[in-house]
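Problem: given the chain below (846 residues), write out its structure.
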Amino acid sequence: MDPNNRGPEEYGHDGDGGSPRPRPPRDSLTSDFGQTAPALARTVQLVTGDYLLTVNPVDGSEIESCPPGERPGRPEKLTPAERAEVARAAKAPVPPGPALPVLPLLERQDDRERLVRQLARGRSVRLTGPAGSGRTALLDLVAEDCSDLAPDGVVRLSGFHRTADELLHDLFYSVYNAPLHRPGRDELLGYVRDIGAVVVLDDIEFGGAALDELLDATPECAFLIGATPDVPAPSADAVVEEVFLGGLERAGGVDIIERTVGRALTEEEANWAGDLWFESEGLPLRFVQAGALLRQRDQQRAGASAVDEFGVFADALPVDAPFETPFGVEESDDLPLPSLGEAAAPAPLLASRLSDSARATLRFAVALGGEIPHQAHLPALVGDTHADAALGELASCGLVSPVGSRYRLAAGVLQQLEAAGYGDDIEARALTAAQHYAWWAGHPSVTPERVCAEADALLAALAVLVPVTTPPGEGEEAVTVQLARTAAPAFAAGLHWSAWDRALRSGTEAARLAGEVAEQAYFHHELGILAICGGDFERARTELETSLGLRGAISDKRGTVAGRRALALVADRTGTAPGFMATAGEEVPDARYEESQSPPGGVPAAFGAVAALPPPTGETSTIVVNRAAPGPGTPPKAHRAGIRGLARRNLVAAGAGALLVAVLGTVVTLGATSNNDANNPSDKVGVNPSASQGVDDGSLGADTPKNGNGSGDTGTATSRPSDPGPDGTYGTSDDPTPPSYGNTPSDKPSGTRGSGGGTTSSPSHPATSRPPTSPPTSKPPTSTPPTTMPPTTTPPSTSTSPSESTPPSTSTSASGPASSAPASSSAPAGTTSGTGTPSGSAGSVI
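Solution.
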């Protein structure tokens, strides 16, 4: 973003024949000329580690294993000319306007030579000094002296809000030519180990073990580190020499003031400068600001006659020229010097004498936490076409200082301006900046690298506005959500992934507060993709499942496809079968016992299940599965996921199916070879024989129970089973009146409680059994008691103890005949299973 060679979009031209201006209203005379086609989404494909990442700002990024043909080869190092261009881009741009006076290095020559000697020996040095001590200026001079010491030259890095891992990536891109390639951790360490350069790292914010990690990863580099005293020191084992930078002497402070003002100081001003030196502890920044105060005082004291006589464009005196009192400035003028308090905190007084554009820029800087927007954005933010010159005014007064490739408010200026009332409209200024950056970051002509250069200002605007986000009006979109939505893909494509992470987190919170479910799903999806790139698969699974749940609520099919693909990649990398991986809204597999899981359709009767017979038309079937509960001292078995668990369940299902086929084959064979005599009375016995049926009445129909609707329909099946009775049989929940089993109206089915609370005996067949789909194919055992009773007698009473008699078996189960050996051997005769069904013939329905 060179201010002297601006991009076409900064002047209102796209360069592609379109117009970036807002579309005029329909009733405008020029509405037809302003219609432009919507810009296509800008997707970027890059390689990160073992993955191929496609940054899609519409539906969400997609990630897959990188095909062998897409893997980049070993990157080549930059040429000296390319390294010079990278170094130029790493410096802060020169502010527009008149050239600032170049201040000589005062009282720092010994420190400068010492640092150069240490770096020439290949040793790392940490230069520690308070903010405003001239540390950055000294680092710039040492970097020029060491330009030919290392084979890879001098690399300038900024440690402001950067971690050790991010600095390793910055070092990699400063030496290697690797566009759209972000190497993995091991690959990155292999590349930076081969770098031999003098690394000038300013504004570092970490020390200790993190600094040791950075130094160990680059054994061929010599580091010149600039830090403030509050930054943790290197560890005791680190081979780093400490150099402390203090303040200037009184003479040095007076010299800086004279060079800033452009003349010699009077005796009163020299005494004032001496008092300031004692108050400021000799920090050079305080003398630069004090010189700016005196220069503004001279401008106020000088009348219009001085401008008329010498002209506006009069040549400035050389830096080495003797200082003389200019025309129109007299020692006897009545304008007093600033007080010592104003000189110690000069920001409000300096700002009051600047232009309106400069003061508006300071208000934006306070709203953005000290970040100065790039000078190319100031005309749009301030509303003045010449507002880009405000940066030069601020730099000449010492109110801003360079930090990497941008400017920030100088040390202490932010607190001074906030106390003076420059922070009263923080939210309004941040909202204006967010609206501008949201439009600018989404413009097709703005490259991701330029968006990354403004990352700190963008993130500062989000930090202010996200906590106060509210649901927008009808047809509107929250500005914070829009800014995060447009900036996050640019950060990802520009390989500034720490800013990508912060933008996604801010966007997630803003979308939640604004109630925008679709945008919230997008941010969760991107966080999952970022976690996959970082190797954090547990976090990736959580974010992706959250995104899928939100997208399922709004029926976002395309986003759901992208999320499921990413989730399948997580399952592949973690060795988890996708089918058993819990998704949003599902039951967690680990919370279930393996014994309680059954194949679809229930377990066959041979495995201990009681399957109800098919119901009449229009009714739903019921399958009651006998599941063994774990003992009191048996710990629950963990759910077995993965390929082994899947194979084991497939084997169980296949075995159950094979057994079912064998049983059905046996049934068909027995039916084909049995006696087909139609007069055999045993073949005419139904599943539910009536207790009042006579022997010679020639009717096989059972008594019709009272079903509550007054109809006399035959059939004993009800709509749904009720809770089992004391003997384990199931009654009907729709029939409050028990059915009649004999001619006596007072007869009750046994197994139900009478009025006295006792339990009467019951026949061996419940009244709610459903008729079979086909007549039984086998004859009942000869030892079975008669299934019919004379009409004049009551039903035979059986003992309530299951061990006294064996219940009759008149039909086969759903899975095979009652006399089959495997089923009858599952439990001893005369015992009752857990479901209340006599288990003399396991799995049979009585």
